[in-house]
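User: For a benchmark we're assembling, each entry needs the component sequences followed by a predicted structure for the full assembly. Here are entry 17's components. Please fill in the structure.
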Amino acid sequence: MTPPPEGAPSWARRIVTAMIPRRDRHFLITDLDDEFAARRRGGHPALLWYFAQAVHAAWTRRHATRLVGPPRGHSGGSMLISLAADLRSAWRGFRGQPGITLAVVLSLGLGIGTASAMFSVVRAVLIAPLPYRQPDRLVTVWSRWTGFDRTWLSTADVLDFKARSRAIEEIAVWDMGRVTLTGIGEAARVSAGLVTANIFDVLGAAPIYGRVFSEQEAIASSKAGRAMFAVVSYNFWRGTLGADPSAVGRTIQIDDHDVTVLGVMPPHFQLPTDFTEESAEPTVLWVPLYIDPATATHGDHGLYGAARLAPGATLRQLNDDLAATAADFVRTGVYPAVMHFTAFGQPIDDDVLGGVRPSMRVLLGAVMFLLLIACANAAALLVARAETRRREWTTRIALGAGRWRLLRLQLAEGILIAVAVGTLGIGLALASKRALDAIGPTAIPRAGDVTVDWRVMLFMLGVSAASAILCSLAPAVHAIGFSVVDGLKDGSTNVSAGRGRLRLRALLVVSQISLGLLLLAGAGLMARTLWSMRQVDLGFRPAGVLTARVALPASRYGEPEQVNAYDDAILGRLRQVPGVTFAGLVRSLPLAASIGDMGMTIEGYTPPAGDHPKGDWQVATPGALEALGEHLVRGRLFRESDVATAPPVALVNDTMAHTYWAGQDPLGRHVRVGGPSRPWVTVVGIVADVRHNGVTAPIKTKFYLPYAQYPVATGNGPITDGTIVLRTDRDPLVLAPGMRAAAAAVDPQVPIAAVRPMTDIIDTALTAPRLTSQVMGGFAAVALVLSAIGLFGLLVYLVAQRTQEIGIRMAIGASRREVVRFVFVEGMRVTIVGIAIGLVLSALGVRALANLLYGVKPWDPVTWILAPAVLAAVAAVACVVPALRAAAIDPLRALRQS
Amino acid sequence: MPAYLGEFEQLVLLAALKLEDGATGGAIRAAIADGSRRTVWIGAVHTTLDRLEMKGLVRSRLVPAVDASGRGRKVYSVQPAGRAAIGHAYTTWVRMTRGLKPKLESS
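Assistant: Structure for entry 17:
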């Protein structure tokens, strides 16, 4: 590069350029060059002058202006430029201490990222309103009687409730079923809701295309004995009907009948049960149900109900009305007194979300504690950082920088941290969302709706800004508050001020450890709960079982013989599939489907006055219980010979055997299911209790009838909706192609659906405790790491603070071992105080967990010994390095420093 | 009340007034050095100019390069507030020195 005319030589300018702050180069170098040229022309010594001026300018511009504050912009001093200067200065500060900066950003980012992820889940699951109009005016209506805390309604119940309660503006009911869809691509089996025409009004949802069916259309369908009209879901419309707006009015085949599509519902519309009971296979279309007052009965409870409260009415009024109506039923003998029949309404929110609310709240609480730990950790690190900058600050103050000015600089640091933390947090929240999608927990209502949107971002930015700024301002206030004279004297020998800061940091570490113990104990209890649940004897062996649902269209399978022929054919083929050891069909799969109960008469058993014996009713083919791995206690299971024409037989579970035949042998005894015209059924076997209604739900009396004999024994139509169960010694999913092929060979119009290994069903049933336990475990692990970092930092600081003291101790004869012990004991003292406080906190916090625990007491000794022990062990590891570092201090050098 | 000016600030403002369109940092420094017969540091001049600009007494603008160096110059102009401040300092000086000429010139 050639020098500009008459300017300083290029080498000199290069040196000077390197010295002058970047922001001043564009005018200072020219000024110096101009003067250099002028001096040359005037015959004055120029080069030496040039360098002297440059060195002076570099020093004043770099130091003096920074100490009293950089120039407030170049065009009049706007706030923005001043903030930019502050941010630049903060950035330089961070670059000088990358380790501490990284640790602060990581710990806050981890805390805020997990908190935001948790917030997005809680918002989607708990806070977002249900997709109905005024959901707070909606209630679900249930009946209740002895042994059934919450069960379905009968048709006559519904009509009477509507007629007699003024608190009900309208009540709608529905039932769930599976239908076979043909005529559009491959035959498919889908979930359908059988709903009264007013359900869309009651829930307050309108179709986006077309209309819903009317009462008259429901009556017409009822008279025809089949569905004639359907309203379909948005997803069904998009997927199966090709998102064609002209699909309204089109005819589809449901169970081999022509059905007219009347309307398409909006994307998020679901029946309340689709969020809970039916979440694995939510309904995709809705066909009319009509309750005919002429045939309504109190005998058959099978309907879900939802009511909209009348204007001004309260839930309490509704419940009073329902209770009064139910009491009338009992008084007039509709229901026996011993049954303790009653009915009640429940806010729809409680119904849909009540199951997950406790876990969600506990996890939200846990993540807030994690956030606190992260903040304490960041604050402790920033206190350490403030310590190293104390002399810089005192110099600035002495040179005239206002304390407000320094606070503003700290604020700028806080903003930088917040931006870094927010970015990391958003990444973490997005990653958690992806992880959640991968798990796809259908057992958690609306888990699919979790999104990381602007609200989550806003929450995250708010929390990031608040925590980062608090964390950076607190140490600054602490550090700036001291006397300038003290600070200038010499920070490192100012023992009393140093001890004050040490105490502050120790306090922060103690709070981390105590909160960490709380999370660790919570995670421990949840892990023990999950373990206990996994230890529950389910009454069958889920490993090696493949299941699939199958439903026969009523049009071609209305007669028992048709159904039996199909069952025989498909089971015959399935047993030929290589690897299948047992194959069968069950009406209701344990832990996957609700089973319901049925009243019965038991030969030789006189129930207490007004009571009726009853049992959960299972229907199974030969081979089904063997395939599920249910245990035979005594007698025999179903055989191929238990056909429709053979003497009817039944199995009972252990609980039923003990309830109705206490002290006697049930084998060979008789029961009758249904009215007096039905034949007696002989009990031929006792099977072990199966946890049908939930891993931890109570076991009820239960009986089993063979598929082939079910119509004879009960007088009902054949079972057309069931689950295939196959047992194998291999990976059960290997059987899936063979299973599909067998089904297609028997009847290509009858699809099989929901092919799942039984172990998946168990996992789904345990989703809530498993997720709670895993998420708590994750929180606890992070908390542990953060506490360890905090303790480590504290001890490193302590050693640095006391280097001279340690040097003197060693000089007067302390051994290295004693020094190690000294540091170690300091660290463990903080840990023990933290654990002690943590135990007190946990004693209070564990109450929130009590409802979620199973098979473990809140004061489980294993957890309460292990959690502090793990924490202490991790703390001990964190103490080792600083202790060894202290022992490596050279006493001579330490003394020379003083 | 016009802004209070320190002695060096007064010198910088006087030099900038005198130089008019040519008031770069270097020219101001040279003018002060000439007028005051003392060593003047360019860094100090710029720091003072920054401060005066912060107070709204001068304003700077960048003038594009006219030579091969490619570097522009930062030229300062005195603002009305700056004129008022230096005017006030001057009248104060005149008032305070009235009748002191013999004493001042003899010392």
